[in-house]
Amino acid sequence: MNRPRWPVWVACLGCAVYAFLYLPLLIVVAYSFNDSRLNAEWDGFTLHWYDVLANDPDMLGAAWNSLMIGAIAAGTSCVLGTLAAIALHRYRPPLLTTLVLAPIAMPEVLMGVSLLLFFVAVNIDLGLTAVALSHITFCVGFVAVVVRARLEGLDESLIDAARDLGASPLQAGWHVMLPLMLPGVLAGALLAFTLSMDDFVVTFFTAGPGQPTLPLQIYSMIRIAVTPEVNAISSILMMLTLAVSLTAYRVSRDVWRAQL
Q1: Which end of the chain is more exposed for a tag (fewer CB within 10 A), N or C?
Q2: How many CB atoms within 10 Å of residue 154?
Q3: Sign of CA dihedral 22, 213, 133, 75
Q4: What is the dihedral angle through the alpha carbons of 112, 115, 119, 125, rounded to the nearest 10 degrees?
Q5: What is the pLDDT of residues 191-219, one digit of tens each?
Q6: Distance between CA 228 and CA 52 in Å, rounded?
Q7: What CATH number is given for 56-258 in this structure?
Q8: Which one, of 131, 116, 120, lies nearest residue 211 by Cα?
Q9: Tens digits of per-residue pLDDT, 14-48?
Q10: Per-domain residue ranges for the chain?
């Protein structure tokens, strides 16, 4: 069968939209190799700014903070989000659904201010601990949505068969349910890690002085000037985010099919 051909104006509009979205990203990557301290003009190809980046203790420290917080947020929200997804799938409590999905729908500025006021009220010092708790708060909802989509496509008769064969509820959940929903769990964890690495607004309100994450460090640098070093770290962060996102997509393709 011949595929339907799009009108020329639709193809042109699509190309224009993709160019608007991705051309600035390609420019950032290209100028990270620019042999000039400014982005005003192209002076030649160089890897100097990646060498400068590798020897910048402030940037390396911020990158380590982001990786550590992202790993903690991904691991913790993966466990909590999976448990919440199981509860939502089996019992569908309206209150729990609202509590899990509220951080997803809530504006980031409002969440950042709310968490800031909460940490001040309970005497939790602003810093990496507060940032990690904040990221777990909004990542749980995303993990729950992904895992719940996977659970909707599960064959419940397999769990019933395991129970009929003498398996306890815990054994049926561990040996039957968990392997079946593992792609959704992994996809949710990767998504949580990506969201944590890229978050700026919530982190801005809850991070303490002297312990910046990578987005905050980049923001502090571009307030002076957008140097090729900023382009270099932005390119690395973009590649990392893209790699994690593609991995999450590949391990969860059946999750998206289950929603159809």
Answers
A1: N
A2: 16
A3: positive
A4: -30
A5: 899 899 889 999 999 987 878 888 888 88
A6: 10
A7: 1.10.3720.10
A8: 131
A9: 889 988 888 888 888 888 888 877 766 777 888 88
A10: 56-258
CA dihedral of 232, 235, 241, 246, whole degrees rounded to 10: -140
CA distance 87 to 92: 7
Please compute the mean of the pLDDT values over residues 103-123 and round it to a whole number: 89
Q: Which residue has the tokens 């790993």?
A: 71
Shortest CA distance to 133 belongs to which of 124, 143, 146, 142? 124
| Model pLDDT, residue 259 | 44
What's the CA gap between 95 and 245, in Å, rounded? 30
**The two three-digit tokens of residue 70, written as one number:** 């992202």
d(CA 141, CA 49): 38
